[in-house]
Amino acid sequence: MSKCYLTTPIYYVNDRPHIGHCYTTTVGDVAARYQRLFGREVFFLTGTDEHAEKVVTAAQEHGLTPAQWADRNAAEFRAAFALLNISNDDFIRTSQARHIERVLRYIAKLQEHGDVYQGDYTGWYDTSQDEYLTETVAKESGFNSPVTGRPLVKRTEKNYFFKLSAYQDRLRKHIADNPDFIMPEARRNEVIGRLDAEEGLRDIPISRASGGGVGGWGIPMPADPGHRIYVWIDALFNYLSVVDTENRREFWPPSAHFLAKDILWFHAVVWPCMLMALGEPLPRSVYAHAYWVRDGRKMSKSLGNFVDLDVIRGYVARYSRDAFRYFLITHGPLGSTDADFAHAKFVEVYNSELANGIGNATSRVANMIAKYFDGRVPDPAGVERHREHDWPSICRAAVEAAIARADSFDLRGAVDQAVGLVRRVDGYINLTEPFKLAKTIEKNPAAKGELAAILYHCAEALRVASLLFAPVIPDAMGTLWKRWGLAAPDPASGDTLARLAAWGGLKPGTAIDKGEAGLFMRADPAEAAPGPA
Ligand code: ME8
Predict the structure, then answer these.
(1) Whose CA is nearest to atom 29 of ligand 1?
(2) Which of 244, 236, 113 is nearest to 167 (CA)?
(3) What's the pLDDT tens digit per position in 480-528?
(4) Ligand 1 pocket mutation, candidates 23, 264, 297, criterion most atoms within 8 A of CB
(5) Which residue in 8, 80, 477, 523 is a FRET match for 192, CA 20 to 30 A apart?
C-alpha cells in the first residue's frame, strides 16, 4: 500500500487555539481522510511547539512554570482537535523526550559534517514571532514585525550557525525542477522572487545564549549547555523526529506539510536545506494557504475579533462539528486569497449546501422509498429510461475528478464533486417527477418499474456522493450509511473508493430507515451568531 505522510504546523502553546490553528489541522485531516479512502496508508501528524520565549513570558504572567503552562495549552489544542473530529495518528509535543533525543542527534550530525559552526550574529529580531528577519525584510516592514506590527529589536549574539548559504544553489534547482514543491503557485513565485532578490542566503543562527530570557527552557546545544537550540530549528525537526523510528521510517518523506503563508520561508527554504545537510529526501510539497480574516480585517488579539475556541464551541454546539468543518473546507483560505469568516455566510452555506443539499436530497429519496416501496431499496432491473442520464458514468466521472482534486490538495474541488452529484439528483427528480408517476400506478402498473428505476438511480447516486462527502462531514455520512444499511468504509480491509464507488453498491431489497429527522436541520438566518465573540 502506498504511504502518505501529512503534517500541520506545530502550534505555539503561549495561548489557546483559535480558528487559524483549527483550520490548518482540519485541512490536514480532510486531506488525510481522502487519502485513506483512496487506499493509501496515511500518517497524519499535528502537535505543539513549546520552547518559544513567549511561552516563558506567558507562563510567568500566570504564575506557572513554562512546563505547566505548556501542559495546560497543549491539552487545549488536543481538546480543540477532538471537538473537530481530527483523525491525527500522533500528537507531538516538542518537550517530549522522544523529540529532544532526536533533535540532539540531528544537531550533532550537522556539527560533525561541518554544517554547524560558531560565530557572532547581529540582526533584526522579531520577538513576537521568535525570528530574525533579513535586512531587506526588516527595511520593507519599517522595522516592525510584518506579522504583528511590533517593533523589531537589534540583537547581537554569539551563536551557532547553520550553513544555509551552502545549500542555496541546490535549493533553487530543486524548486525549479519540482513545480509542486511549493504550493499554491502564487506562493511558489513569491519564494522564487525573494530568493532572487536577496543578495544570497545568509547563514542562520540556530542557537541562543541561555541567559537571553529563555532561562532553562529549551533544548541545550550538544556539549554546550550555555546555548539552547533556537525554537524554530527545534520545531522544524518535529516532522522528522516523529517518524524516525523503526516502524515509521517508511513514511518519510512527507507528501505535504500544510501551513499558512506566515511561516512559508522556514518550511520552503530553511527546512529543506537542513534536510539536504542531513542527507534526507525532501518533502514532496509545502502547501501554504492564506489567512482567515474577520469582516475584512485581520484577526488579532488587540482587535478582539478572533474566532476563538469558545466561539468555535458555540458553532459546533448549534450547527454540528460537520457543519463547521464543511464551512472551513469549502469557504476557507486554501488558495492564495484570504477568506472572511462572516456569520451570515456560514448560515447561507449551511442552509443551501447541507440542509437543503445533501440533507434534503437524502430525506426526499428515503421518504419516497418508504412510501412507494415499503422502505426497501427498489429493484431497477429491466427498465431503461432517461438514457441522457447515464448515472453510472456520471458518478464515475465525479469520483475520478474528486480523486484528482484531492490529490492536488484542492479539497473544495473534491467535495464540490459530491455537491454536484446532489444537484443532479435534485434535477433528475424534478425532471422525472416520481411523485406524479406514483399516482398513475393504479391505472398503469408498468409505471411501478419505472418508479423503481428512478428512485434506485437517485439513491445509488447519493450513496456515491456520500463517499465523496465523508472526509469533510464524517458524522452525517456515518448516520446516513447506518440508516441505509451500508457499512462504513474500512480501508484496512481493502475498501478503497474505487471499489466502493462502483455502480450497484446499494442492493435492492435493503431496508432503508428514513430517520427521525434530516441529516442537517435548517438554520434560522435571523438568529445571532454563537457567542462569545
Ligand atoms: O508559527 N488564518 O505557530 P503558531 C489561517 N510554532 N491560519 C492561521 C491563522 C489565520 N488567521 N493564524 C494562524 C507557529 N494560522 C510555529 C510553527 S512549525 C514547525 C512551527 C495557522 O501557533 C497557520 O497554520 O503561530 C499558521 O501557519 C499557524 O497557525 C501558526 O501557528
Answers:
(1) 21
(2) 113
(3) 999 999 999 998 788 899 999 999 999 999 999 999 999 999 999 999 9
(4) 23
(5) 8
Q: Within this chain, do residues 277 and 347 fall inside the same structural domain, yes or no?
A: no
- Domain harbouring 138, CATH code: 3.40.50.620
Whether residue 354 sits in one domain with residue 238: no
- pLDDT of 87 > 60? The answer is yes
| pLDDT band per the 50, 70, 90 thresholds, residue 124 | very high
Q: What's this model's pTM, rounded to 2 decimal places? A: 0.94
Average pLDDT estimate for 172-196: 96
Q: Is 530 within a domain?
A: no
3-state SS class at 132: strand
From residue 458, alpha-carbon distances to 206, 224, 358, 425, 442 in Å are: 60, 69, 12, 6, 23
The CATH number of whichever domain residue 480 belongs to comes to: 1.10.730.10
* pLDDT tens, position by position, 444-472: 988 999 999 999 999 999 999 999 999 99
Please state whether beta strands 297-298 and 292-294 pair in parallel, antiparallel, or not at all (unpaired): antiparallel
Instruction: Report the atom number in ligand 1 closest to the C-alpha of 236.
Output: 19
Which DSSP category does 163 fall into? -
- Say if residue 285's pLDDT is above 60: yes
- Give how many domains the chain has, as a whole number: 2
Range(s) of the domain holding residue 359: 325-330+342-500
Whether 455 is in a domain gets the answer yes
Q: Which amino acids bring their CB within 6 angstroms of ligand 1?
A: 9-12, 20-21, 23-24, 49, 235-236, 259-260, 262-263, 291-292, 299
Residue 279 counted as domain residue: yes
175 and 247 within one domain: yes
Q: Kindly give the distance from the C-alpha atom of residue 17 to the centroid of ligand 1, in angstroms, as a whole number.
A: 10
Closest CA to 233 of 184, 191, 270, 195: 270
Query: Do residues 354 and 261 share a domain?
Result: no
DSSP secondary structure letters along 215-252: TT-SPEETTEEEEEE-HHHHHHTHHHHTT-STTTGGGP
Do 176 and 255 fall within a single domain?
A: yes
**Which pLDDT does position 329 carry in this prediction?**
98
Distance (angstroms) between ligand 1 centre and the Cα of 144 equals 19
The full DSSP string for 285-305 is: EEEEE--EEETTEE--TTTT-
Task: Identify which of 106, 262, 329 to mutate to test ligand 1's pocket (most ligand atoms within 8 A of the CB).
Answer: 262
Q: Is residue 317 part of a domain?
A: no
* CA–CA separation, 328 and 321 (whole Å): 11
